[in-house]
Amino acid sequence: MPTSARKPIVIVTRKLPDVVETRMRELFDARLNVDDAPMTQSQIMEALKIADVLVPTVTDRVDRAVIAQAGPQLRLIANFGTGVDNIDLDTARNRGITVTNTPGVLTEDTADMTMALILAVPRRLVEGADYLKNAANHWGGWSPTWMLGHRIYGKRLGIIGMGRIGQAVARRAKAFGLQIHYHNRRRVSQDVEKELEATYWESLDQMLSRVDIVSVNCPHTPGTYHLLSARRLRLLKPSAYVVNTSRGEVIDENELARLIEAGAIAGAGLDVFEHEPAVNPKILGSERVVALPHMSSATIEGRIDMGEKVIINIKAFLDGHAPPDRVHPAMF
Ligand code: 8YV
Q1: CA geometry: angle 293, 209, 152, nearest 5 deg
Q2: pLDDT 10s digits, 204-233
Q3: Atom number of ligand 1 nearest to Cα 303
Q4: Measuring CA to CA, which residue among 271, 275, 265 is closest to residue 110?
Q5: Ligand 1 centre distance from Cα of residue 131 (Å)
């Protein structure tokens, strides 16, 4: 912990919105990444030798080997993001390092993008827009049987992970006339189920075989890695769509790509991938997939709110209080 004579060294691994960086400079000895070049593992290791606080993002792997290099002054990892699968939580806890995240402030943005994908894929939105933009296609005008997609009204949506984001997706989807089904470690309260008219499935397998659209909204943890395994993906109806705005690792991406190519799954809307920034070429090449570059929470408002949360967590911690968004390994 720094002496009162010096400001704590806060190392931020990526460029953050200007207002966030300005405030960080005022409060801390902030070492910022103005070029936004992702840091290598060895650069993060070097940083941890001097940092009092590290502010990583989803693109930084703060694993056991990295944490092993940390000097004794490192007391806090204040993640800029809600998912903490980039951090080895057990190793951090064993070293007495506190970890915080930024829950809540990206719920609505992520749910909006999830809903956008739920609409975009069955209705062939990107395919249609791309067709018109390509002058070489010479659009001949409306046709009764051309560019037909599938109706989402009245269909069954199966949400995997009914936390904040899952519930925000359900609220939107209900307004679009979808029937809400969900699988979660724990059943949500009766009030929430009633509000969403949601049906709980204790068995994920049983839910998968009955729904028309699956939305993945659970965090990536050792327990959810490949939750949508090859076996489970094959339980889906051939007319079903898969939407994922959580983490690519929750789905066996190779098998998903293979099943879409084979026509055994109708399509997918994917904002996240198993080996980011690499994306399976079969997924990129498929007309039946809408693929986005991990941008579900990418709003300026959301990123400023995330930065504000990071600052509050650091300030509270350094002032000797429990940071509001402390992550306990048992939460995941
Ligand atoms: C963030 C996310 O933007 O918060 C998360 O878990 O997946 C993203 O939407 C990213 O993690 C920032 O680190």
Answers
A1: 55
A2: 999 999 999 999 999 999 999 999 999 999
A3: 3
A4: 271
A5: 31
